[in-house]
Amino acid sequence: MLPNNSMIYSTVQKALRPEVDDVLPYYLEGKMLESALDFIAFLRAEKMKPGWVGVHNAWRSNGKGKPLCYVRLGREWVRDTKNVKWVVVLYLDCIDDYINKINIENLQDIVWNDLHYCGDRDCANGCSPGETKTILGKEFSGLCPIFYNRVNFVNPDESAIRNMVSLLRLERDARKRKKA
User: Fold this and answer.
1) Does residue 53 contact residue 60 with C-beta atoms inside 8 Å?
2) What pTM did the predictor assign?
3) DSSP string, 12-65
């Protein structure tokens, strides 16, 4: 198990720069652990290997030099939420380029339900109360003007992971097309 003092563990992580699969068993178990390990295997197989980002319990996968997703462990990453074991944050910078595919695959609710609002834990930009933005044809108020393109999945199950995989592939492919 993890040491009681998380700062000690943070120092150890800084020295070791651990792989996410080595730390996952300290936070997850059973089916949730199995699903998380499968997701990490997907990232690696798709050449989106998550690397430790220098922050306690955080790993990032990049696409074309910009973040595609973060994997974060522990509840300190989500404000006012109990029982958070892990969070995956997708960066959908090119979402407007694949709106039709999102609609065809019925992923719009997934995006809409997990948007990044002002006041979220990692939104410390002084931008509250947020802005009104249109995402996939629907208007939302209170979205962070800087991070509105982030979609947060808290304790994703197998179904959520399938949706994350679909969105990640769409985002990655859109970025490749833009760079081509």
Assistant:
1) yes
2) 0.83
3) HHHHH---HHHHHHHH--HHHHHHHHHHHHHHHHTT---EE-SSTTEEEEEETT
Instruction: Write the secondary structure of 53-83 as one string of H (helix), E (strand) and C (coil).
Output: CCCCCEEEEEECCEEEEEEEECHHHCCCCCC
What letter would DSSP give residue 104? Answer: H
- Give the C-alpha separation, 86 to 159, whole Å: 15
Please state, in angstroms and rounded to a whole number, the distance separating the CA atoms of residues 71 and 48.
12
Q: What is the CA radius of gyration of the chain?
A: 16
CA distance 92 to 111: 9
The strand pair at 86-91 and 66-73 is best described as: antiparallel
Q: Is 143 left (phi over 0), alpha (psi -120 to 50) or beta?
A: beta
Q: How many CB atoms lie within 10 A of CB 34?
A: 13
Convert the pLDDT of each residue in 2-54 to its tens digit: 444 454 466 777 778 889 998 899 889 999 999 999 999 999 999 999 998 87
Q: Which residue has the tokens 């003092």?
A: 5
Residue 58 tokens read as: 């955080």
| Per-residue CA distances from 71 to 19, 25, 54 (Å) | 11, 14, 13
Phi and psi for 111 in degrees, rounded to 5? -65, -50
